Amino acid sequence: MMCTPKRQTSKSRRGNRSGSLRAIALVIVLLVSGIIACKRPAVHSVGRPLIGTLVTLTVLAESHEKAIIASEAAFSEIARIEALMSPVIGGSDIARINKSASGASVIISPETFALISQSKEIWRETGGAFDITFASMSGLWNFSRVPFVPPGPALLNSMKHLVNMANVELDGKKKTVSLKKPGMKTGLGAIAKGYAIRRAMEVLRRYGIENAMVDAGGDLQVIGSKNGEVWMAGLIHPRTKRIIIGIKMRDGEAVATSGDYERYAMYRGVRYHHIIDPSTGEPARHFASVSVIGRDPVEADAFATAIFVMGMEKARELLARRSGLSAILIDADMKVWASRRLAEDLVVLGDVEITWF
Predict the structure, then answer these.
(1) Does residue 322 lie in a domain region?
(2) pLDDT exceeds cutoff 50 at 31
């Protein structure tokens, strides 16, 4: 449909001066109205380091001022969540839980309590594959140490008993958390990023933004479209780091990826990474990359980690039960698998073969 206003015609050349002025004014109004109606919202993109990664907000808005005000509010919300849930910020809920003596109850915010409660539900559903007490062993794996040497079996075995969500006691009325064993720690790194994305998007909506993407280090959620075009997310190859698949993201959808290529170190030809299997205390070995697509960034974040640990068979069983979740899996041999319901939403780039399930 063309946006040019229709040309005005007259049956007669005659008319008084005031009539001519009114006609000119009408044409001007029509032209301005046409320009306003056809103006596409500008795309505003800004990034900021938060929650341990680069958070990028891409917002479509009628004015730069509106985009900045909404983005600043969303960034402030993410910073607030980081202050609540980061294990390294003194006084955060998680830092206080981890610092408490064994058995001591710690009163925390309702938000953090709800996320820990949800973590425990996912722990049950995944048979322990998702466990926030993995943090009890995280100190053993320092991938920035040079030279990197993995912890020995004896040290791992001496610490494994600390990793068990069953030893996290929750009191819903008092909003307290207590850890049963000395030395236990918790970490929300596999779920809090999804929560921060969800809250940031809620803030953008509250500020009248209807089309946006919140991207936190590759985990993201979108709303609306990009001036009528579908939002796209790129999936990179775990070894070449090149984008091999484009994912069409519908209004409200989220995607989260867990991979062995961001935080890792090599030792004697073996790749050691940060996604720890709670049952062994060592890096999970089933996959190189797991991407989960759904409508809740919290679930996508948590289940991407859980599936990475679970392996193919259990992952497919989980996805069959969870009809609202889809996944793209790249196994240890670099073979690509994907949920069949994603067939119309994936754009393959280059020589990539997908096995559908």
Answers:
(1) yes
(2) no
